[in-house]
Design goal:
Blueprint: E1 18-25, E2 36-40, E3 46-51, E4 57-62, E5 66-73, E6 80-86, E7 91-92, E8 95-96, E9 102-109, E10 120-124, E11 130-135, E12 141-147, E13 150-157, E14 164-170, E15 174-176, E16 179-180, E17 185-192, E18 203-208, E19 213-218, E20 224-230, E21 234-240, E22 245-250, E23 255-257, E24 260-261
Parallel strand pairs: 1-7, 1-8, 9-15, 9-16, 17-23, 17-24
Antiparallel strand pairs: 1-4, 2-3, 2-5, 5-6, 9-12, 10-11, 10-13, 13-14, 17-20, 18-19, 18-21, 21-22
Amino acid sequence: MATPAAVGASGTGADGAAVIRGQVRDGQGTPVPRTAITLLDRSGHQLARATSGADGTYAVDTSELGSLVLIGSAPGYQPQVVTLALNGAPVSHDLVILPSPGGLAGTVRGGDGEALPGALVVATDQRGDVMASTTSGEDGGYRIGDLLPGDHTLSVSAPGHRPAAVPATVSAETTRCDIHLVVAATLRGTVRSPDGRAVYDARVTLVDTAGNVVGTRTTSVDGGYAFTDLSSEQYTVIASGYPPVATQVTVNGSQEGVDIPLAHKEA
Protein backbone atom coordinates (compact mmCIF):
# COMPACT_ATOMS: atom_id res chain seq x y z
CA MET A 1 0.00 0.00 0.00
CA ALA A 2 0.96 3.62 -0.46
CA THR A 3 2.62 5.75 2.20
CA PRO A 4 0.04 7.33 4.54
CA ALA A 5 -1.02 10.75 3.31
CA ALA A 6 -0.51 13.91 5.30
CA VAL A 7 -3.32 15.24 7.49
CA GLY A 8 -4.55 18.78 7.08
CA ALA A 9 -7.46 21.02 8.06
CA SER A 10 -10.67 20.73 6.04
CA GLY A 11 -13.59 20.39 8.48
CA THR A 12 -15.53 17.70 10.34
CA GLY A 13 -18.72 15.85 9.52
CA ALA A 14 -21.81 15.05 11.51
CA ASP A 15 -21.47 13.45 14.95
CA GLY A 16 -17.77 14.34 15.08
CA ALA A 17 -16.83 12.19 12.08
CA ALA A 18 -13.71 13.29 10.28
CA VAL A 19 -14.21 14.51 6.75
CA ILE A 20 -11.86 13.55 3.95
CA ARG A 21 -11.93 16.12 1.18
CA GLY A 22 -10.00 16.61 -2.02
CA GLN A 23 -10.07 16.95 -5.76
CA VAL A 24 -9.59 14.38 -8.52
CA ARG A 25 -7.44 15.51 -11.46
CA ASP A 26 -5.84 13.82 -14.43
CA GLY A 27 -2.16 13.97 -15.36
CA GLN A 28 -2.67 17.36 -17.04
CA GLY A 29 -4.29 18.86 -13.95
CA THR A 30 -7.82 18.79 -15.40
CA PRO A 31 -10.60 17.95 -12.92
CA VAL A 32 -12.15 14.52 -13.43
CA PRO A 33 -15.88 14.50 -12.60
CA ARG A 34 -17.94 11.41 -11.78
CA THR A 35 -15.03 9.64 -10.13
CA ALA A 36 -16.21 6.97 -7.68
CA ILE A 37 -14.56 7.52 -4.28
CA THR A 38 -14.59 4.52 -1.93
CA LEU A 39 -13.22 4.40 1.62
CA LEU A 40 -12.30 1.01 3.10
CA ASP A 41 -11.05 -0.09 6.50
CA ARG A 42 -8.05 -2.35 6.99
CA SER A 43 -10.17 -5.50 6.57
CA GLY A 44 -11.61 -4.29 3.26
CA HIS A 45 -15.05 -3.30 4.50
CA GLN A 46 -16.60 -0.26 2.87
CA LEU A 47 -16.94 2.69 5.23
CA ALA A 48 -18.12 5.40 2.86
CA ARG A 49 -18.67 6.16 -0.80
CA ALA A 50 -19.02 9.36 -2.84
CA THR A 51 -18.77 10.69 -6.41
CA SER A 52 -16.66 13.67 -7.44
CA GLY A 53 -18.52 16.71 -8.73
CA ALA A 54 -18.17 18.64 -11.98
CA ASP A 55 -15.05 20.35 -10.63
CA GLY A 56 -13.54 17.03 -9.49
CA THR A 57 -14.02 17.72 -5.78
CA TYR A 58 -15.21 15.03 -3.37
CA ALA A 59 -15.92 14.57 0.34
CA VAL A 60 -16.45 11.48 2.48
CA ASP A 61 -16.72 11.23 6.25
CA THR A 62 -15.88 8.49 8.74
CA SER A 63 -15.51 8.00 12.47
CA GLU A 64 -12.91 5.28 12.01
CA LEU A 65 -9.32 5.89 13.09
CA GLY A 66 -6.03 4.49 11.91
CA SER A 67 -4.95 3.47 8.43
CA LEU A 68 -7.79 3.57 5.90
CA VAL A 69 -7.75 2.94 2.15
CA LEU A 70 -9.13 5.52 -0.28
CA ILE A 71 -9.85 4.41 -3.85
CA GLY A 72 -10.68 6.67 -6.78
CA SER A 73 -11.89 5.14 -10.06
CA ALA A 74 -13.41 6.64 -13.19
CA PRO A 75 -14.25 5.21 -16.63
CA GLY A 76 -11.23 5.44 -18.92
CA TYR A 77 -8.74 5.92 -16.08
CA GLN A 78 -6.52 3.69 -13.98
CA PRO A 79 -7.82 3.36 -10.41
CA GLN A 80 -5.81 5.23 -7.79
CA VAL A 81 -5.35 3.72 -4.33
CA VAL A 82 -3.90 5.57 -1.34
CA THR A 83 -3.55 4.82 2.38
CA LEU A 84 -4.64 7.61 4.74
CA ALA A 85 -3.73 7.84 8.44
CA LEU A 86 -6.73 9.21 10.36
CA ASN A 87 -6.48 10.35 13.96
CA GLY A 88 -9.85 12.10 14.24
CA ALA A 89 -8.75 15.30 12.52
CA PRO A 90 -10.01 16.27 9.06
CA VAL A 91 -7.96 15.14 6.06
CA SER A 92 -7.29 16.80 2.74
CA HIS A 93 -6.03 14.62 -0.09
CA ASP A 94 -6.11 15.16 -3.86
CA LEU A 95 -6.07 12.21 -6.24
CA VAL A 96 -4.31 12.13 -9.59
CA ILE A 97 -5.61 9.43 -11.93
CA LEU A 98 -4.08 8.60 -15.29
CA PRO A 99 -5.79 7.42 -18.50
CA SER A 100 -6.18 3.67 -18.64
CA PRO A 101 -4.38 1.95 -21.52
CA GLY A 102 -6.78 0.43 -24.01
CA GLY A 103 -6.17 -1.73 -27.02
CA LEU A 104 -7.17 -2.76 -30.51
CA ALA A 105 -8.20 -6.22 -31.60
CA GLY A 106 -9.77 -7.74 -34.67
CA THR A 107 -9.33 -10.05 -37.65
CA VAL A 108 -7.42 -9.49 -40.88
CA ARG A 109 -9.15 -11.01 -43.92
CA GLY A 110 -8.33 -11.23 -47.61
CA GLY A 111 -10.24 -10.71 -50.82
CA ASP A 112 -12.46 -13.79 -50.42
CA GLY A 113 -13.02 -13.25 -46.73
CA GLU A 114 -10.39 -15.79 -45.73
CA ALA A 115 -8.30 -15.20 -42.62
CA LEU A 116 -4.82 -13.84 -43.32
CA PRO A 117 -2.18 -15.17 -40.90
CA GLY A 118 1.13 -13.37 -40.62
CA ALA A 119 -0.21 -9.93 -41.62
CA LEU A 120 1.77 -7.04 -40.14
CA VAL A 121 -0.42 -4.73 -38.02
CA VAL A 122 1.04 -1.38 -36.92
CA ALA A 123 -0.59 1.27 -34.72
CA THR A 124 0.62 4.87 -35.01
CA ASP A 125 -0.48 7.94 -33.07
CA GLN A 126 -1.63 11.28 -34.47
CA ARG A 127 1.99 12.40 -34.94
CA GLY A 128 2.75 9.31 -37.00
CA ASP A 129 4.91 7.71 -34.30
CA VAL A 130 4.71 3.93 -34.10
CA MET A 131 3.12 2.94 -30.78
CA ALA A 132 2.97 -0.83 -31.21
CA SER A 133 2.96 -3.59 -33.81
CA THR A 134 2.07 -7.26 -34.07
CA THR A 135 1.32 -9.98 -36.60
CA SER A 136 -1.98 -11.76 -37.09
CA GLY A 137 -2.31 -15.37 -35.92
CA GLU A 138 -3.34 -18.47 -37.83
CA ASP A 139 -6.98 -17.39 -37.58
CA GLY A 140 -6.15 -13.88 -38.83
CA GLY A 141 -6.71 -12.44 -35.37
CA TYR A 142 -4.53 -9.77 -33.79
CA ARG A 143 -4.43 -7.78 -30.57
CA ILE A 144 -2.45 -4.68 -29.60
CA GLY A 145 -2.64 -3.63 -25.96
CA ASP A 146 -1.34 -0.78 -23.80
CA LEU A 147 -2.47 2.03 -26.11
CA LEU A 148 -3.46 5.33 -24.56
CA PRO A 149 -7.01 6.46 -25.34
CA GLY A 150 -7.25 8.64 -28.42
CA ASP A 151 -7.13 8.56 -32.19
CA HIS A 152 -4.72 6.18 -33.89
CA THR A 153 -4.06 4.87 -37.39
CA LEU A 154 -3.96 1.14 -37.95
CA SER A 155 -1.85 0.04 -40.94
CA VAL A 156 -1.99 -3.54 -42.18
CA SER A 157 0.04 -5.30 -44.86
CA ALA A 158 0.31 -8.90 -46.05
CA PRO A 159 2.10 -10.59 -48.95
CA GLY A 160 0.04 -10.61 -52.14
CA HIS A 161 -2.37 -7.95 -50.89
CA ARG A 162 -2.68 -4.21 -51.10
CA PRO A 163 -1.78 -2.51 -47.79
CA ALA A 164 -4.55 -0.69 -45.95
CA ALA A 165 -4.70 2.05 -43.31
CA VAL A 166 -7.79 2.85 -41.26
CA PRO A 167 -8.48 5.28 -38.38
CA ALA A 168 -9.13 3.71 -35.00
CA THR A 169 -10.22 5.40 -31.78
CA VAL A 170 -8.86 3.72 -28.66
CA SER A 171 -10.86 3.88 -25.43
CA ALA A 172 -10.22 2.40 -22.02
CA GLU A 173 -11.68 -0.86 -23.29
CA THR A 174 -10.41 -2.98 -26.16
CA THR A 175 -11.72 -1.56 -29.44
CA ARG A 176 -12.55 -4.03 -32.21
CA CYS A 177 -11.23 -3.14 -35.65
CA ASP A 178 -11.50 -5.76 -38.43
CA ILE A 179 -9.42 -5.18 -41.56
CA HIS A 180 -10.18 -6.33 -45.12
CA LEU A 181 -7.24 -6.39 -47.53
CA VAL A 182 -7.71 -6.41 -51.29
CA VAL A 183 -5.71 -8.92 -53.30
CA ALA A 184 -2.87 -7.17 -55.11
CA ALA A 185 -2.95 -7.59 -58.88
CA THR A 186 0.06 -8.27 -61.08
CA LEU A 187 0.32 -7.09 -64.68
CA ARG A 188 2.97 -8.86 -66.74
CA GLY A 189 3.71 -9.41 -70.38
CA THR A 190 6.27 -9.45 -73.15
CA VAL A 191 7.31 -6.77 -75.62
CA ARG A 192 7.97 -8.20 -79.10
CA SER A 193 9.13 -6.90 -82.44
CA PRO A 194 6.95 -7.33 -85.56
CA ASP A 195 8.72 -10.58 -86.42
CA GLY A 196 7.96 -11.99 -82.96
CA ARG A 197 11.36 -11.53 -81.37
CA ALA A 198 11.52 -10.42 -77.74
CA VAL A 199 12.62 -6.81 -77.36
CA TYR A 200 15.30 -6.33 -74.71
CA ASP A 201 15.70 -3.03 -72.85
CA ALA A 202 12.39 -1.57 -74.02
CA ARG A 203 10.86 0.97 -71.64
CA VAL A 204 7.36 0.08 -70.35
CA THR A 205 5.35 2.70 -68.44
CA LEU A 206 2.09 2.10 -66.56
CA VAL A 207 -0.35 5.02 -66.26
CA ASP A 208 -3.62 5.07 -64.27
CA THR A 209 -6.90 6.66 -65.39
CA ALA A 210 -5.97 9.98 -63.75
CA GLY A 211 -2.82 10.20 -65.84
CA ASN A 212 -0.46 9.40 -62.99
CA VAL A 213 2.58 7.24 -63.74
CA VAL A 214 2.26 4.17 -61.53
CA GLY A 215 5.65 2.78 -62.47
CA THR A 216 8.24 2.21 -65.17
CA ARG A 217 10.00 -1.01 -66.08
CA THR A 218 12.72 -2.05 -68.53
CA THR A 219 12.19 -5.35 -70.31
CA SER A 220 14.51 -8.26 -69.57
CA VAL A 221 16.45 -10.28 -72.14
CA ASP A 222 13.31 -12.29 -72.89
CA GLY A 223 11.30 -9.08 -73.41
CA GLY A 224 9.36 -9.60 -70.20
CA TYR A 225 8.09 -6.95 -67.79
CA ALA A 226 5.90 -7.00 -64.68
CA PHE A 227 4.08 -4.55 -62.42
CA THR A 228 3.05 -5.85 -59.01
CA ASP A 229 0.97 -4.64 -56.09
CA LEU A 230 -1.70 -3.07 -58.31
CA SER A 231 -5.29 -2.16 -57.58
CA SER A 232 -8.01 -3.65 -59.73
CA GLU A 233 -8.73 -0.82 -62.17
CA GLN A 234 -8.04 0.38 -65.68
CA TYR A 235 -4.50 1.28 -66.78
CA THR A 236 -2.66 2.30 -69.90
CA VAL A 237 0.56 0.45 -70.77
CA ILE A 238 3.03 2.38 -72.90
CA ALA A 239 6.02 0.65 -74.46
CA SER A 240 8.83 2.56 -76.16
CA GLY A 241 12.14 1.69 -77.71
CA TYR A 242 10.67 1.65 -81.17
CA PRO A 243 7.90 4.21 -81.86
CA PRO A 244 5.82 4.21 -78.62
CA VAL A 245 2.78 1.93 -78.45
CA ALA A 246 -0.03 2.49 -75.94
CA THR A 247 -2.35 -0.34 -74.90
CA GLN A 248 -5.31 -0.01 -72.55
CA VAL A 249 -5.91 -2.81 -70.07
CA THR A 250 -8.32 -3.40 -67.17
CA VAL A 251 -6.86 -5.30 -64.23
CA ASN A 252 -9.51 -7.43 -62.54
CA GLY A 253 -7.67 -10.39 -61.06
CA SER A 254 -4.52 -11.33 -59.28
CA GLN A 255 -2.59 -11.62 -62.53
CA GLU A 256 -3.12 -10.20 -66.03
CA GLY A 257 -0.96 -10.71 -69.12
CA VAL A 258 -0.45 -8.12 -71.84
CA ASP A 259 1.96 -8.68 -74.72
CA ILE A 260 2.92 -5.56 -76.66
CA PRO A 261 4.06 -5.61 -80.31
CA LEU A 262 6.43 -2.80 -81.32
CA ALA A 263 6.71 -1.61 -84.92
CA HIS A 264 9.90 -0.64 -86.66
CA LYS A 265 10.78 3.04 -86.90
CA GLU A 266 9.82 4.52 -90.25
CA ALA A 267 12.59 5.98 -92.34
